[in-house]
Amino acid sequence: QLETLVRAAEARARMALRSEVTAEDAEAVIRLMNHYLKTVGCDAAGRPDIDVIMTGKPRSVQQKMARIVEIVEELQKELQGGPVSKDLILEKAEKEGIDKAFAERTLKQLSSEGLLFQPRDGYYKKV
Known about the structure:
There is one protein chain. The protein has two domains: 2-40, no CATH class; 59-126, Winged helix-like DNA-binding domain superfamily/Winged helix DNA-binding domain (Arc Repressor Mutant, subunit A), CATH 1.10.10.10. 64% of the residues lie in helices and 6% in strands. The chain has six helices and three strands. It has a three-stranded antiparallel β-sheet with strand order 1-3-2. Helix 5 (86-95) crosses helix 6 (100-112).
C-alpha cells in the first residue's frame, strides 16, 4: 500500500506539472486514501477493514461463513460422512451465536458457490 501512496503522490505532482513530489502532494494523497478507507473499507461497526475492499465482505462475515463450513464438516464426521440436515446445522450455528437467517443465506450461497452441495432437499455435504 505504501507503493500505491507513492505512485499517487507522483501522479499528483505530475498533474501540477512538477517533477518533484512535495509534502503537500503526500498529505493530499494520504487524506484521499483515508477518506476512501472510511467510505468504502469499513465494517458494520465503522472500523477499518481491508477485507471489505479486497473481498467485498467484512472479516467478521467471512469468519462466520467459514465457521458454518466447519460446522457442516464436524457434523458430517459425526454422521460417518453422511449428509447433514439443515435443521441440525442451523441449531449448532445458533448455539454458537450465528443468526439463523444469516446461516440459511450462507448455506444457499455456499451451495451456489460449489463449496457445499445438497444430495437431497434440506441436506448438505462439504464438497
